Amino acid sequence: MSDLSRLQRFSNLLYWMALAVSVILPLVVLFYAALGLQDPTALLPHLPFAVDGADITHRQAGLIAVTALIAVMPLVAALRAMAVLFRRYGAGEVLSEANAETILQIGRMLVLVAVLTVAVPTMQGLIVTWNAAERQLAIGIDGGTLGFLMVSGLLTVIGWAMREAARVKAENEGFV
């Protein structure tokens, strides 16, 4: 079995997985947002920086829902771009400028996901505590987030490198 056929089979599987997750993930966020809007106190156990006994209003729950939806958008965009890339790989298109641009787009979206992983919980913590006697500003970053940022940066650089490689390939094909 050739490496290309293995790439195509695995890419076809990943295509369906990326597509499914890109549909399911926003639905899950919408579900929890709706639950939070219905009963704002139900959000508290799910917030990383919530203050015990905080009183959360419907307005605060709505803002938290909006921040959660904003946070999930770049990940959904990255998953959709991955699905496009996997579909192309499944069709046997490997080294192309379109694939390089897609990889670059995925990398950029994942960098944004890493940034939002830090920013959104911080904003949500501020939203939850704005009515509290003690307001809280907590910024959390861990090794996983830093690692994710590095990997997404690597993917961005790979996209740039592949774009250059695809350009050189097209240029060489023009000489033959």
Question: Can you describe this structure?
Answer:
The protein is an all-alpha fold and 176 residues long. Helices cover 77% and strands 0% of the residues. α1 runs antiparallel to α2 (58-90). It starts with a helix and ends with a helix.
Count of spatially separate domains = 1
Head-to-tail CA distance between termini? 29 Å
Q: Helix count, per DSSP? A: 4
Find the structural class using helix and strand composition.
mainly alpha
Unreliable stretches: none
Percent range of helical residues? over 70%
Q: Quick check: average pLDDT?
A: 87
Major sheet details:
none
Measured by DSSP, the beta-strand proportion falls in under 5%
List keywords for this structure.
single chain; 176 residues; mainly alpha; 77% helix; elongated
Short description:
With 176 residues, the protein is mainly alpha-helical. 77% of the residues lie in helices and 0% in strands.
Topology:
Layout: H1 3-38, H2 58-90, H3 97-129, H4 143-175
Helix pairs in contact: 1-2, 2-3, 3-4
